[in-house]
Amino acid sequence: MSNFQQHQAINAAGSKAKAKLKFLLAAAALAALMGLPPSLSGAENAPAATAVANSQQQGKIRMGVPTFANNSSVRDVIYGERYADMLVSELMQNRNYELVERNRLNKVIEEQGLGQTGILDQSNVAQVGKVAGLDYIVLGNILETSSLTKEGISGTSLLLSGGKSAKSSYYSELKVVVNLKVIEVETGKIVFSENGEDTAKVTWGDRPGQVSPENYFGAAQKAIAKAAFKIMRQIAPLEASVLKVNKVKDKIVSVVIDMGREDGLREGQHYEIKREGESILNREGKVVGVEMILIAHIDIENVEANTATAKVVKIEKDPATKKEYEIVRGDLAKMQAADKPRTAGEKWGQLIKK
């Protein structure tokens, strides 16, 4: 869905929420006059409706992340809880989202009699989401948590005879695979599904060690971050705009954008500079979207409370003139995946010193 359509949808949702709130409050008042309990009027849902209306008036999308299901070979409950917390931390980077605390969501799940562990089944998402006043629920499933210990050579050790001998060194290769599904509460439909996976390596030394949950969390964090990024790109993406363009000898070297630490920006994040082009019309001639032109790639270097400075890494060329685009005030900055190639065979990790 285009940004134009997303804004239309958010405005429509806000109107619906406010209308629903007015109805519920009116029902509550009528029930009070008639001496009826709130449950017969639907007024017990007023707090949830109030929360939804308030968040949507602010342009916020309310999301909940319950404890991850764990279908891997390592079944410790701590994995499902920690992975859910990791996902919440990632999604909080998008200030268009309002994240409901996992403990609060788990309480709703338990009160609905849907389980004591906080794990939510897809068939019950709409029920829980409506009670909690959510727009979306993100279900996580740990598909794989595995390790393989190997023996390698780390160097040499001196023998009494004066010769040298190979020295063994043990290490474990870890792998984590998670699946994320975003469920739209109103319809119960899956609007996004993505697997995220990554690996990590733990070096033990001259004897193998025991893999702990902490060892897996590094790989899990990267796997979850990859999938979470795609959620943030698809559902109400966070956008900044260029405030200032800095040049050295007529060459653009950096830009200042109008979002900062309070908006979830961090040093090292990667953004694309884009500009709105021609409007996209449907058969009836109505505007259904706007063409977006890729102008440049930037890396966030310095983050203040409400602004950030980014280094310009690459400027694209205008296909018509074959010349580099000129970044101007008002151009949009959109978050970009860390591993997305800029050109054929070129990745962010090859250009950024980590």
Helix and strand layout, with pairings?
Elements: H1 3-34, H2 46-57, E1 61-64, E2 69-70, H3 77-91, E3 97-100, H4 102-111, H5 125-132, E4 136-158, E5 164-184, E6 190-205, H6 213-234, E7 239-248, E8 251-257, E9 270-281, E10 287-303, E11 308-315, E12 332-336, H7 348-351
Parallel strand pairs: 1-3, 1-4, 2-4
Antiparallel strand pairs: 4-5, 5-6, 7-8, 7-12, 8-11, 9-10, 9-12, 10-11
Helix pairs in contact: 1-2, 3-6
Give the key terms.
354 residues, alpha+beta, Rossmann fold, Thrombin, subunit H, 3 domains, 6-stranded antiparallel beta barrel, 7 helices, 29% helix, disordered N terminus
* CATH topology value of the largest domain: Rossmann fold
Order of helices and strands: HHEEHEHHEEEHEEEEEEH
Give the helix/strand class. Answer: alpha+beta
Second CATH tier, the architecture of the largest domain: 3-Layer(aba) Sandwich
Q: Tally the helices: what do you get?
A: 7
From the alpha carbons, calculate the radius of gyration and give it in angstroms: 25 Å
The top level CATH class name of the largest domain? Alpha Beta
How many domains, as an integer?
3
DSSP strand content: 35-45%
- Give the overall shape, derived from the CA principal axes: globular
Largest sheet: 6 strands, mixed
Mean pLDDT: 77
Helix content: 25-40%
